[in-house]
Amino acid sequence: MNFNEYSKDPRYWAVWQKMQLLNIRDVSTDRQDNNGTIVWRLPIKNNHKPTSFIEVASFSTGYVRNQNSGYSNYQLNKRCQGEPEYFELPNGDYRRFSTRSCVLIPIEIDRLEYLISYCLKNYFIKRANQVVEGRYVSQWYHDWSLERANKSDRVYELESQVNCGDKRIIDLKAKLRKVTSECNTAYDCGLSDGETKANETYSENTGAMARIEDLEEKLDAMTEDRDLHVDTIIKLEDKLSNAISPTKYEVEKTYSVNLKHKLHNLQNKLATINRISE
């Protein structure tokens, strides 16, 4: 569908505005458009096929489907208990069989409204930490990265201060060596005012010596602070290496849910068999 087709009705126009807000594109071909099929492309990379984006579609048969997130496209319709079916056995008895089926949505605008609500809930909200490149970022990794970045900035700042302190101390020490050399030269040459000049020079630079000692103390404190932050980063890296990967966690969680679902189905089947036998 193009812009003109969406703007023909207020309900279609509301769907179009939501599509623009969520950056969903209509990628239906002319053939699909003629068949009453509407295909949307979401701005979220596909886990099953990382090189492609998720696509969902509305069909004139009443189905809404995910087109490329599995080995085949699958229905997104709500499920309901289907009508029971009866099968005749060779001995003349009948067995009742029922299953869950899809709730079809026969009206197109109803399908589109349902589809965009489904996408918002199951793709944009549930996968809010799925970046556009398709890489999953877990909460603990996100927090760790932020903390590491903050610590790294602090260490960089401290190292800059330490380097500046080192430079100032080196300059002052060079100046002090030059003054000391001049004083020694005055004494060695036996200048008439050499002693007086040396004493004056020493008095003038007494403050420089005290400044050097003060800077050295501050430098030691900043170095200790920097080393503390570096140790914190190392501990965080160790914590990261020992953490459970999000993929493994999700797999274990899914496996546990599947086992519970299978157990529930088996219990229902057992209850059905007991009722039939009675």
Sum up the structure in keywords.
278 residues, alpha+beta, 2 domains, two-stranded antiparallel ribbon, elongated
Polypeptide structure, described:
This protein is α+β, with helices and mostly antiparallel strands. It has 2 domains: 108 residues; 105 residues. The chain has 8 helices and 9 strands. A 5-stranded antiparallel beta sheet has the order 1-2-3-4-5, with helices on one face. A two-stranded antiparallel sheet has the order 6-9. Strand 7 and strand 8 form a beta hairpin. Helix 2 runs parallel beside helix 4 and helix 5 packs antiparallel against helix 6. It is elongated and about 130 Å long. The two termini are 57 Å apart. The relative contact order is 0.07.
Extended strand count: 9
Share of residues in helices: 55-70%
Distance between the termini: 57 Å
**Mean of all residue-level pLDDT scores:** 75
How big is the Rg?
Answer: 38 Å
Name the overall outline. elongated
**What would you call the quaternary organization?**
single chain
Kindly estimate the percentage of residues that lie in beta strands according to DSSP.
Answer: 5-15%
Order of helices and strands: HHEHEEEEEEEEHHHHH
Flag low-confidence runs: 243-249
Number of helices: 8
SS-derived structural category: alpha+beta
Largest sheet: 5 strands, antiparallel
Overall structural domain count:
2
